[in-house]
Structures are given as structure tokens and as C-alpha cells.
Amino acid sequence: MPIEYLNHTADLGLRATATTLNEAFSEAARALFALMVDLATVRPKQEYAVHLEARSDDDLLVEWLSDLLAQKELTGLVFSEFDVRIGRDEGGLRLEGVAAGERLDPSRHRPKIEVKGISYLGLDVRRTDGGWEAQCVLDV
Amino acid sequence: MANGLRLERVALSEWILPREGAMRVPGRIYADPETIAQLEEDVRNRTEWNALVQVRNVAALPGIVDAALALPDVHPGYGFPIGGVGAFDLDDGVVVVGGVGFDINCGVRLLTTPLERADVGPLIERLGERLFATVPAGLGAEGRIRLSIAEIDRLLAEGAAYVVERGYGAPDDLAHIEENGRIENADPSAVSTRAKQRQFRQVGTLGSGNHYLEIQVVDGVLDPEAASAYGLSEGRIVVSIHTGSRALGHQIGQDYLKEMTAASAKYGIPIPERELVCAPIRSPEGERYLGAVACGANCAFANRQVIAHLVRGVFAEVAGLREEAIRTVYDIGHNNVKVETHSVDGAARSLLVHRKGSTRAFGPGREESPQAYRSVGHPILVGGTMGTASYVMRGTDRGMEVAFGSGIHGAGRALSRKKAAKRFWGETVVSELAAAGIRVWAHSKRGIAEEAPGAYKDVERVVDAAVDAGINKAVARLHPLAVIKG
Q: Quick one: closest CA in A to B143, which residue?
């Protein structure tokens, strides 16, 4: 199962599982936006390019998701498709990504809940036997 | 018990988590036995995120004074538990982003109207419809005010006063808001441009999740003296507004989690859990965060002020009231950090008090309370859930002595959102409430399922535990008639 939501009494955890780290980050972003809108209704009409750096996989996940979250107000867009490339060097990690979506239209996208922030609680990006897992808890 | 977390009951509604390991002070929990049993079960089941571990972690932070507290609505949060209070010495202590959270100064505004229950019966449908249409709520809703960066800076520095100056509400409102709706040490330069830009279209919006706007009736007066001071009487129609600092507060939280990660490393502060990253209160990083969090708080006061204005407009239109006839009883936040003076071991000390899912609850005599309420203490506004009552309470002398003058903020969740969404169906919840005489207007059915009354603890139980513990006193019960949700 690529996306799993985890029980947290007040908030909501998410865990994305994939063969590669790049895919795990894409799945985590899909999981984030699936909480806010019906992804099937969001057409990938406009692209938003993301360039991020961080010192660890964990930090990069928070940077990635919180940047996308901020774009919801900054650009008015919600996203349904993601393409992520993560590179590693001595300085840390670099993410080059593209998120595709369209302007939020409450009449069509069946809005659900708002996500306030990406917390550090339970934050965990790790290699598993089958690939990668990316997990975090969201304040909703 | 697993993890060495063992609670000792010391009074009817009071438990101690004894100091051990890295804890600098004990934990102290005011709650009813059922809540305590749930917390202990979470520990036994090694539930990944549990509130007792969070109390223990807060108790391990540098400079914490007396005890890490949890109040009767305690449940797991991130960093601090929800219903958590931590007071820190200004010289040795730290300021913790996880002690405030993303929704800075999320809180409740209570308005009274001159209407009685009998007056409103035939109007309730129209009032609900018009409020739903008028107050922007739900994902992506945009406010009616558009602000430039310079105007946002003024709003962050001046809080509710700024929007009153622009014609939203009256100066009398300001005298009935915690800190007069303006926290003095706000520093807009400590807030990122991204945070300000995210707020451009968000002023005067309700949001989603547990935020709400309710028309309620006072259906029980439990403390006549205080109720009279607050202008509340049996049968009176009131309005509650529950919302916070919107995207601006969320972005401040996100920005400072990152900054505090660096600060914790720089100052060599041992962090029991990553969400508790922090900085010394008197460090440049700590002071910047406090300047930013004050901006977030001011933004929330302004947000509730604008919504109160919209509510007045609807009541004027539908019920023919003069807007001035709708009065602010009080406006108080429940995700805050404030410098306050408290008596510790008989001596007055200035402390930095974090309240996460907890309100300030100052008892009689404190100068921070509005003049009109000073003899009884200011109101505490306790949100219920859609189908249950809300409460107006007040602080007590005992609460000042043992809980840094803190109060409960709501029923507190019992079920996770995932479990609630599985167990309840939005449309069923709405029709069941309608059968009980409570009309619900909502932008999201899934949101309704997650916020179903059954997902929360019984608010009466939480109120009773706070009363039994002696930290808060119940003043009036508010029963919902119409609910607007995001």
C-alpha cells in the first residue's frame, strides 16, 4: 500500500511506501493533498517547480511537504501529480521537483480538511527491505 | 507499567508522574479517572504517540518550574500534549515551538445578543444560512479584506485594534479581548515574507477542522455572580467563534521549527523529542520567536474581530438588531506563550508560560482581566463539539496556586480522525443532530464525520474534572442551536 494514514488522537500521521526515495516523496505529497481535496478531480494543468536543500532525509521531507502546503495560499493551486528527483552530496540533499495541479475550485475538488503544518513528531524517512518509507504527523 | 511511566493518585482529580530519569520536575495531571485510564492504556499498548510520554518529555526541558502540567482535556499532541502547560524560568528556561503549535492563539470569541430563545426560534434557519454564506469557511475560502505587506505589518503589530480602525467592530470590543487584542512585543520583522504572503486572503476566514461558528443558547447558569458580570443569563442567545491565526500562524510555526532545530544544536540543549526543539528565552533566537508568536497572536485576535463584525452584520440583517447591541463578552486564546507573574514557593516570579490547548484562567483580582470582570476573574471559553454544550468558566485562587492560572479549552478528542471518519458518516451526523434540534451547515462532509460528537470526550466530564480539581469554576452552559463548519 503506497499511502497509509496513521492514528493520532488529535492529528493525522501519514506513511508513504515506495521502491525509491523519489517515489516515496511523491507518494507522501499525494497523501498530503488527498487529505485536502479529491485528487481524481484535480487536473495537472499548471506546473510548479520546487528546488530545495536539506541536511537530512527527514528534514527534506518536511521542507518538501511544507513548501507544497504554502503554495496552496501563495499560488491558489492544489496538486495531484508529483515528480521528484533527490540528489545527495557531502553538503546534504537536494530536491528538484515538479508539482502539477490547478487552482482550487471548491465546487469541483470536493474540499475536505485544511492541513496546518508538518510536525517533527514521528518524522522518519528510512530504507526498508523493499525500498523506502517516508512518515510524518500533520497538524490538521 | 511500560516505559517506567507510573502515575500516583494524590487527590480526587489529581495524579503525579514522579520525577525520574531526565525529568527535571515531576508531571502533574488534573483529570478524571476515565481519562487517566486511557492515558495508561496508551502507555501499556505502547501507542506510538501518547500524552504521558509527552508530559515526561516536557518535564525534561531546561528551566521548567514546578511541574509539567496536563489539564482534564489532555490528549496526545506533537511536542507538548494538548491540554499541556509548561512554565519556564526567564533566565534558565527555554521557549518551545511545540508548546504553542502551528495554530498560534487559536481561541474562542463569545458574543452576546439581546435575543432570547423564544425570539430566535423562527429565525434560526435564516441566521444559519446567512452566516454560512457570509463567513468564509473551509479549505480555500478567501476573506473579504485584501491587505498589502505594509498593512499586514500593521495588523501584526496592532492586532484587533488595527481592524477596528478599519471599521470592523467597535473600540468597546478591544476592552473585552485578552490583552486588549494586542500583544505588545510583536515584531513583524521576525515574521517571514512567505508567512505574510500566505495571509493576504486569509484575514476573516474561519478555516476547517475543529473550527466553528455557533449560535447557542445559555441553558444553565451555574455561578450567578460571575454570569451577571459577564452579561449572561438563562435563555440568552449568544454566538461563539472558534478559529486562529490561519496560514500566517501556520507558517510562523513551520519557519521556527527549523530555526529552533539550529538553535537547539547551537546552545547544546538536550532535546527529548524532536518536536520540542527550543532556544533559551533570552537568546536572539528565543526573542525573535517570541516577537513572531506575538504577531501570530495579534493576527488571530484580528481574525476573530473581523468574523465578529460579519456575524453582527448577519444579525442586523436577519433579526433587525443594531450592530452595537451585539457585545463581545470575551475573546481568549488556547495556543499561547506569555510572560506572566506567578507565586512560586511564596515568592513572585516572572515566568514564560506555554499553554498548548489550554487557556489563561486568571482568578479574581488580577490586573490582566478587564476592569468589569476583575472581581470574579475573566471568562474562560470552553468549546464543546457540534452536538454538545460549550461552557463559560472562570479561574480560581487554587488554579493560580497550582496550575499557573490555566484552564481547559475544550472537550478533547477521544478518537483519532481516521477512526472517527471510519465510524461516522457526515450526512448521518448532520441528520441526527437535526433531529436533536441542532442545525449544521458544513462545507465538508468528511470534516463533519471527523468532528462527530462521538469523536470527543464528554465535555461535562472534562468540566467536572476541572471543577473537582479546583482549578476552574463553571459559570454557564451554552447549548448549540446552529453550527457552521468549514
A: A73
Q: What percent of chain B has pLDDT over 70?
A: 99
The Cα–Cα gap between B366 and A90 comes to 56
C-alpha cell at B257: 521549527
Contact A121 B450 (CB under 8 A): no
Residues A39, A62: Cα–Cα separation, whole Å: 21
Number of H helices, E strands in chain A: 3, 8
Bridge partner residues of B240 (DSSP):
B110, B214
Q: How many angstroms separate the Cα of B218 from the Cα of each of A46, A81, B125, B242?
A: 50, 49, 19, 17
CA B157 to CA B150: how far, in whole Å?
Answer: 11
- Rounded Cα distance, B17 and A66, in Å: 35
> What is the per-residue pLDDT across B299-338, written as a single tens digit (0 to 9) for each?
999 999 999 999 999 999 999 999 999 999 999 999 999 9
* B409 min Cα distance to partner chain A (Å): 14
pTM of the model: 0.96
Domains of chain A, residue spans: 3-139
Looking at chain B from residue 200 to 229, which residues have their Cβ under 8 Å from any Cβ of chain A? 200-202, 207-209
Q: Are B459 and B378 in contact (CB under 8 A)?
A: no
Q: Residue A70 carries which DSSP code?
A: H
Q: Which residues contact B428 (CB under 8 A, 6 or more apart)?
A: none
- The predicted complex's ipTM stands at 0.94
Cβ–Cβ contact B334 with A under 8 A: no
B275–chain A Cβ distance below 8 A for any pair: yes
Q: Is A112 on the interface with B (CB under 8 A)?
A: yes
Mean pLDDT of B468-478: 98
B409 flagged as catalytic: yes
Annotate B226-251 with b (16+ C-beta within 10 A) or e (fewer). Answer: bbebbebeeebbbbbbbbbbbbbbbb
| A35 neighbors A12 (Cβ within 8 angstroms) | yes
Chain B segment 109-168 residues within 8 A of A by beta carbon are: 138-141
What DSSP letter does each residue of B379-421 carry, written as one string? EEEEB--TTS-EEEEEE-HHHHHHSSSEE--B--BSS-HHHHH
Check whether domain A3-139 has CATH 3.55.10.10, yes or no: yes
- Output DSSP code: residue B222: S
Q: In this structure, are strands B472-485 and B439-442 parallel, antiparallel, or unpaired?
A: parallel
Q: Do A121 and B417 touch (CB under 8 A)?
A: no
User: At a CB cut-off of 8 Å and minimum separation 6, what does A114 contact?
Assistant: A36, A140, B138, B139, B207, B208, B209, B486
Handedness of CA B281, B283, B285, B287 (dihedral sign): positive
Task: Collect all residues of chain B within an 8 Å Cβ-Cβ radius of residue A119.
Answer: 78-79, 98, 102, 257, 275
pLDDT for res A11: 82
A109: its cell numbers: 475538488
Q: Position B399: which residue type?
A: G
Q: Are A125 and A133 in contact (CB under 8 A)?
A: yes
